Amino acid sequence: MRPFKVFLLIESSRASGRHLLEGIVRYAHHHGPWSFYWEPRGLQADRATLKQLDVDGVIFRDVQLLKREVLQRGLPAVVVGHGSREIRGLINVVTDSATIGRMAAEHLLQCGFKHFAFCGLVGKGSQQLPWSKDRFEALSSSLAEAGFRRPQAHILARPGKDWPGQRRRLADWLSKLPTPVGLMACNDDCGVQVAEACKMAGRRVPDEVGIVGVDNDEVVCGLCDPPMTSIDINFERAGYEAAQALELLMRKSRRVPAKIIVLASRLVPRRSTDFVAVEDSCLAKALIFMRDHASSPFSVTEVAHAVGASRRSLERRFRKEMGVSILHEIRRVRTDEIARLLLETTLPVNQIAEKLGFEDEQHFARYFGSARKLRPLAFRKAYGKLVNGA
What we know:
Elements: E1 4-9, H1 15-31, E2 34-37, H2 47-53, E3 57-61, H3 64-73, E4 77-80, E5 91-95, H4 97-110, E6 115-121, H5 130-145, E7 152-156, H6 163-175, E8 181-185, H7 188-201, E9 209-215, H8 218-223, E10 229-233, H9 235-250, E11 259-262, E12 264-268, H10 281-292, H11 300-307, H12 311-321, H13 326-344, H14 349-355, H15 361-372, H16 376-383
Parallel strand pairs: 1-2, 1-3, 3-4, 4-5, 5-11, 6-7, 6-8, 8-9, 9-10
Antiparallel strand pairs: 10-12
Helix pairs in contact: 1-9, 4-5, 6-7, 10-11, 13-15, 13-16
């Protein structure tokens, strides 16, 4: 049986595209063989190229010319969304923007910010890119639920369109925001522009502007000074599932998913939000204590003792400023640390439980499950990196 010939039109200049390719290749290695056509030039392909290749299937970004050709020819195809909404008649790969916006809001609220902003990107014409708009709406909804008004927004034009002028306008907008302000950038590239504009505006990061990006591209996040906090998106698993769906199409199966959701796995904190934006110094000390002791068990009483306050007084301050109890915040900090170890390491669950001071694996699983609605192994399987297959 000859291998399937698959055309990949996915750029590799960013970690998201490379991780998609990694997932696709991993699937092909386990379920192939497949024969790939891909070029480093990324998205620069035309209809003639597609005709010459005589391929069995395509996985591509939603490039307009290629989209028309794929639909006209009825090729088995999976499309990775970027510039447009979902395309009827194709399997769409879309990011979970609702969760992404919510995670950014939760993190900025946990830092104690009371003012919020958003920086997005323009797509066709003057319209904001669909996924950028969805992330803004999710951020706004989560902040509204917490009692805050809709964040101020600034939308950048596409790269190459008067960047110096755009940066000046962005800096002017930033200079007028109330501070300290927690700002979500729709992706890491946009976050870099915000960080550079902050320098022009004389806004210190994170003391005056805390920045959260999306994609967790370590190279791009490192371009910021200080390095940028970002939400990690599991593009590798999405690539694997995209390849799996394409094979079903090429084999003319009827069990084909309508879409593939790219899950947001976790928020990776870096120094761009390493700031506790609360006026109450006692509360700030308590939050820092919790963060610094996340890998060890500690009680509400120990937190109060560490900051020199009575338990009742500290509890009252927490509920007033943070809207949650001390115990709720302890659980959040601890489960965040568990999630980090589940996703960043291959340590067995029982070793993670022991490392974090839990009495037994059952208690550990219940503790984590009550907060994340998934048991540790299920969480790792859903959001972790692929290991020897799916």
